[in-house]
Amino acid sequence: MGKPIRWSRQSLEHLEDVYQFIAQDSPYYASLLVERIFEAVERLNDFPEMGRIVPESDDPDTRELIYKGYRIVYQIMDERLEVIAVFHGSKKYDG
């Protein structure tokens, strides 16, 4: 069994912003995207180093998954993984 995953308040707010933006056109696809992002993050439980190192960071424990053009940034910590940001891939991570 892998490390537990925690979502920071900021990352959940980011995810809500993504949902609200997409829901303007399609609440169905907004819900589906959010659901799939959660599923992608759950896979980190068993494979925490699956994501690439964030290019804007020198920290090998700050990694990201890319899903449908969105960057899901997380940190590998001693006892858990923490999702710290979710944002569109066209933006830079300012950690």
Topology (SSEs and partners):
Elements: E1 5-7, H1 9-23, H2 27-42, E2 52-53, E3 62-67, E4 70-76, E5 81-88
Helix pairs in contact: 1-2
Residues in helix, % = 25-40%
Indicate the proportion of strand residues.
25-35%
Q: Give a quick account of the main beta sheet: strands, pairing sense, barrel closure.
A: 5 strands, mixed
Distance between the termini: 29 Å
Q: How does the helix and strand content classify structurally?
A: alpha+beta
Q: Total helix count? A: 2
Q: Supply Rg.
A: 13 Å
Mean pLDDT: 93
Q: SSE order in H/E notation? A: EHHEEEE
Give the neighbour order of strands across the main sheet: 1-5-4-3-2
How does the overall form come out from the CA principal axes?
globular
Low-confidence stretches: none
Strand tally = 5
Descriptive notes:
The chain has 95 residues and is of the alpha+beta class. It is built from two helices and five strands; from the N terminus they run E-H-H-E-E-E-E. The chain has helices at 9-23, 27-42, and strands at 5-7, 52-53, 62-67, 70-76, 81-88. It has a five-stranded mixed sheet. Helix 1 packs antiparallel against helix 2. The radius of gyration is 13 Å and the shape is globular.
